[in-house]
Amino acid sequence: MKGRKAPLARELSVGEVARRSGLAVSALHFYEAKGLIASRRTAGNQRRYGRDVLRRVAIIKVAQRLGIPLATIGEALKTLPEARPPTAADWRRLSQHWRADLDERIRKLTRLRDHLDECIGCGCLSVETCPLRNPFDTLAEEGPGARLLEGDGG
């Protein structure tokens, strides 16, 4: 029966998932240890993954490229149904949830870019006047001592 394709296997080995996803086997083991993906063990103690793991791995990789922490990704993946691969609607829901965080990081990076020249250009990197480290000298109001300098400063 030439030209017929073999039926797709219901489950994939860790090597097949690695090949199809472009990830190292060790990365898949790491994701599994973090609870991001799951496998079952065969009688010979080999990992077997459902085909839906390929879509889950794709979501993980895209989210990581956005700078989303693995813990946050894991929480989002827990909201997905386990009986089927994530759909486009599932992705839209996850991505909308992450959009606000991404927009805030873009705002902060834009501010950093816009103030970078004047900060470095001043030559002193003064804590009192630096628009990046101490915008509007707000730290002076808190008194002396160490401070976490993450203020957004406008």
Automatic annotation (TrEMBL):
Residue ranges of the HTH merR-type domain? 11-79
Q: Where is the 4Fe-4S ferredoxin-type domain?
A: 108-142
Q: Which InterPro entries match?
A: 4Fe4S_Fe-S-bd, DNA-bd_dom_put_sf, MerR-type_HTH_dom, MerR_fam, Redox-sen_tscrpt-act_SoxR, Tscrpt_reg_MerR_DNA-bd
Q: Which domain of life is it from?
A: Bacteria
Keywords tagged on the record: 2Fe-2S, DNA-binding, Iron, Iron-sulfur, Metal-binding, Transcription, Transcription regulation
Which SUPFAM superfamilies does the protein's record reference? Putative DNA-binding domain
Q: By what name is this protein known?
A: Redox-sensitive transcriptional activator SoxR
Provide the taxonomic classification.
Bacteria, Pseudomonadati, Pseudomonadota, Alphaproteobacteria, Hyphomicrobiales
